[in-house]
Design a protein that fits this description.
The chain has 487 residues and is mostly helical. The protein is built from 24 helices and no strands.
């Protein structure tokens, strides 16, 4: 009974929020439709946080409400007064526009790549291979975990599928080899360190590539629609690369120092991985084909930007995977994660665009810019990035955080004269992945890792705070100056 009441409360709460905001008088200078749209947008975010039904269903419903109530939510009086203006038709076009987003389809293509890793067994083979050759020392095994995740990241936009679905199932088999078990004193023998290394790996890999985490693409859409800044796949990668290389070297070692395992050397891990590889046998035709397609896609993404769009590369790879029988179409149709993400990102992109369409972003930017006069442009960038980053303590989803906070931060920055918007946009989106280390609930893999019981709560919060500060400090102190040099 209590569970049912809890679900009812979570279902009613977003509606109450929307109703209350509707009843509040429209702020001075804001177009009425902008305030009403904002009420729907906030209700959507509340619904995504509480999740009385799946988050994708929440965003889908929000778009539907805006399409149906278009005259009160999207268009101003001058547009509606035009006899040639068909509000219903224009609203429907607006509502479906997200499905034409190239970046959304890029993520979908990467999801099918992830399915290929799973179906062919290539993902597990890569993980076992790294463990075999780097598993004799606990420290190098930590580096192997990070490298595995980074190798899979360009083609696995769900960090939950990548770290939680591919890396975690392999690594969780290692601690018991050393009598290290969850939820007791033996967890610190080696299990705690290995689990924490997956937190490090997923946060780094999620920021290293556009396709490393689904919210990255949502962030790109926001900066494009709100700030008018377009960031390519290669520009993203090169912007984070200096910071990523430093963290790739430093983070595993520092974790080893701050959370040192009792077991520092091992032969069992390498032997176990070797046995598992022998059981898998030689590379199959499908695995070899997938490797070829991965190399082809990477080559086109890095060197073919002037000739072929990144999304077209992804769709080409998917088409070849289907034509060459690497992944059967029936597996694609059953891959709910890819289709769910396609709808979720498409609807969130539309809702974010609606903040601009309704006039809310312009009003908010003009209002905030008057209150931030006197701040230097660079100091403002630092403050905005830090506010966006550490606000993640309040969110249990990178997507919800990005959808809620990023449009607001971008609007503030856009409204202040002299702000280097391209730098601000890049710093903001690059911070989305690395903030996943802050809390046990910061991102999907974190929930899985924390739930397995090897890392105690106090250790997770302590390490998350330490590495969270290190990550954002390096992004601002190293990444930003190098970005400014390249500009």
């Amino acid at each position: 009974m209590s569970i049912a009441k809890d679900k009812i409360w979570k279902l009613i709460a977003p509606l109450l929020v929307m109703l209350v905001l509707f009843l509040i008088p429209v702020p001075d200078g804001m177009p009425p439709q902008a305030w009403h749209y904002f009420a729907v947008f906030v209700a959507m975010i509340v619904g995504m946080i509480l999740e009385p039904i799946p988050a994708t269903a929440i965003s889908f419903i929000a778009v539907t409400i805006c399409v149906i109530g278009n005259q009160f939510l999207l268009f101003d009086a001058s547009e509606l007064a035009n006899p040639d203006f068909d509000a219903s038709s224009q609203a429907l076009k607006w509502g479906l526009a997200g499905f034409s987003s190239t970046t959304v389809w890029l993520v979908f293509g990467a999801f099918i790549f992830a399915l290929g890793y799973e179906v062919t067994g290539l993902g597990r083979r890569i993980a076992l291979f790294m463990v075999k050759f780097m598993g004799k020392r606990t420290l190098t095994l930590g580096y192997a975990i990070v490298i595995i995740d980074i190798l899979l990241a360009p083609f696995t936009p769900s960090n939950t599928a990548r770290t939680g679905g591919t890396v975690f199932p392999v690594i969780k088999n290692l601690p018991p080899l050393f009598q290290s078990f969850p939820n007791d004193k033996s967890s610190r023998r080696i299990g705690g360190y290995l689990m924490w290394m997956m937190v490090i790996s997923t946060s780094l890999s999620s920021s290293m590539f556009v396709t490393g985490a689904a919210p990255n693409v949502l962030g790109l859409e926001f900066v494009s629609k709100i700030a008018g800044v377009n960031i390519s796949w290669l520009q993203w990668f090169l912007s984070f690369l200096p910071v990523g290389l430093i963290l790739l070297v430093v983070a595993p070692w520092l974790s080893y120092v701050l959370y040192k395992p009792e077991v520092t050397h091992s032969e069992e891990v390498s032997g176990w991985a070797g046995n598992a590889l022998r059981e898998m046998g030689a590379l199959t035709r499908k695995e070899k084909t997938l490797i070829g397609l991965v190399l082809l896609s990477l080559g086109l993404w890095v060197f073919g930007g002037d000739y072929i769009n990144a999304t077209a590369v992804g769709l080409l790879a998917v088409s070849l995977m289907l034509a060459l029988h690497v992944v059967p179409w029936k597996e694609v149709t059953k891959y709910t994660g890819a289709w769910n993400t396609l709808v979720n990102l498409s609807t969130l992109v539309v809702m974010a665009n609606g903040l601009t369409r309704s006039g809310f972003i312009k009003w908010f930017a003009d209002t905030m810019s008057t209150h931030l006069e006197g701040f230097s442009p660079n100091a403002t960038v630092v403050v905005l990035v830090l506010v966006f980053y550490f606000a993640h303590y309040l969110f249990a989803s990178l997507s919800a955080h990005t959808a809620t906070m990023l449009p607001v931060i971008l609007a503030i920055g856009k409204g202040i004269p002299g702000i280097p918007m391209e730098h601000l946009c890049i710093l903001l989106v690059l911070s989305i992945g690395i903030m996943g280390c802050l809390t046990p609930y910061a991102t999907g893999p974190g929930v899985i890792i924390y739930g397995c019981g090897y890392v105690k709560s106090k250790d997770y919060w302590r390490l998350g705070a330490i590495f969270g500060v290190i990550y954002i400090a390096l992004l601002l102190l190293v990444g930003w100056p190098i970005l400014a040099m390249w500009s």
